[in-house]
Amino acid sequence: MSDVHRASVDDAAVLARLLWDFNTEFETDVDEVDVLEVRFARILALPAIVAVLAEDDGRAVGFALVSLRPAIWFDGPVSQLEELYVVPALRDRGIGTQVLELSRALVRDLGSPEMHINVDEVDADTRRFYERHGFVNVEEGADYRMLCYVGPTSSAG
User: Fold this and answer.
1) Record's superkingdom (predicted)?
2) Per residue in 2-18, pLDDT tens?
3) What's the pTM value of the predicted model, to 2 decimals?
């Protein structure tokens, strides 16, 4: 079993490397590790950011990053699971589950009754993982899937 704990600003470099590994594994554009480290150091100091780090024999093997934002439809903040990653060689060993469970517990303790996550439709393994942990894309009583749209902050023109 891995050591899974809440990350701090001191973990910015480790989290930056893991995020870089995650994005390069899936051939996604990503900034350099030193740029990511500065960003992690900045956001980890914010009370609305929760990061979880998994280590195995002192080596970083996974992480999650969660943001919290105010919500109008209930009293506590809604949490958004921004990232969850486990190194490829250690997947299917329960590390992702440990990271997700601690993330959920931490944000629940901060008053968040609901967590959101965006998953690519083609990523069947990831979708199965989240569905196994109670996440849905069809709310009870609905007969349609929820979708996430992404766009620029300036109007198209």
Assistant:
1) Bacteria
2) 799 999 999 999 999 99
3) 0.92
The SS3 assignment for 36 reads: helix
The amino acid sitting at 20 is: W
pLDDT tops 80 at residue 156: no
Which has the closest alpha carbon to 64: 28, 20, 19, 122? Answer: 19
Q: Report angle CA 32, 35, 36 to the nearest 5 degrees.
A: 85
Task: Identify which of 4, 13, 148, 119 has the alpha carbon closest to the alpha carbon of residue 64.
Answer: 4
What is the residue-wise DSSP string for 66-78? EEEE--SSSSSPE
Which residue is associated with the tokens 């780090």? 53
Burial class (CB in 10 A: 0-12, 13-18, 19+), 33: middle
* Contact call for residues 36 and 70 (beta carbons, < 8 A): no
Residues 23-76: tens digit of each pLDDT: 999 889 999 999 999 999 999 999 999 999 999 999 999 999 999 999 999 999
